[in-house]
From TrEMBL:
Species annotation: Plantactinospora siamensis
Pfam families: MarR
Name of the protein this chain belongs to: MarR family winged helix-turn-helix transcriptional regulator
Region described as Disordered: 144-169
Top-rank lineage group of the source organism: Bacteria
HTH marR-type domain residues: 19-147
Biased composition (Basic and acidic residues): 156-169
């Protein structure tokens, strides 16, 4: 791999600096979303798992671990906590009796949906202070972000195409 004189001199190309800024902007957006969520006793990972189960249906524990970027033992502990709270349950896979799937209970779905409603109310307040053209620009930008993080990127690794009807096999 060759390096440019600017790289050798310790300077970084402008494109790298722009990507660094974009990453920083995304981090600020994520902090904003965390602040827009009132404390409700759910960790970020627990909320993410419940959201995934609500949006995409039952998952294998190992697929949840991969999707959330945690170890399988850590996910086992998290799912056990969600079960004790009544937010998730394990059930056999009707297609393969050897497989155990994790799914959100009605209480878990209610909890994550209430969390979303509370966050939406807070965001509504924040967005109300923006001019119409800024809100429109934000909406366009979020559609682009949605394409980046769309359904194919929500599926557990190695399971693409196996979520027909919102379930994982």
């Amino acid at each position: 791999m060759t390096t440019s004189p600017a790289d050798r001199a310790g300077e970084r190309p402008a494109a790298d600096a722009e990507l660094d800024q974009l990453a920083s902007d995304f981090e600020r957006l994520m902090r904003l979303l965390r602040r827009a969520t009132a404390p409700d006793g759910l960790s970020l990972t627990a909320a993410s798992v419940l959201s995934r189960l609500d949006d995409l249906g039952p998952h294998r524990l190992s697929d949840l671990a991969v999707a959330e970027g945690v170890t399988q033992p850590a996910m086992t502990q998290l799912v056990s906590r969600l079960e004790r709270c009544g937010f998730a349950e394990r059930a056999g896979d009707p297609a393969d009796g050897r497989v155990v799937l994790v799914r959100a209970t009605a209480a878990g779905r209610d909890r994550i949906r209430e969390r979303r409603r509370a966050r939406a109310a807070k965001l509504r307040e924040l967005l109300a202070g923006l001019p119409d053209e800024d809100r429109a620009a934000l909406e366009r930008s979020l559609r682009t972000v949605d394409r980046l993080a769309g359904p194919a990127n929500d599926r557990p690794a190695g399971r693409v195409g196996e979520h027909e009807g919102g379930t994982t096999t």
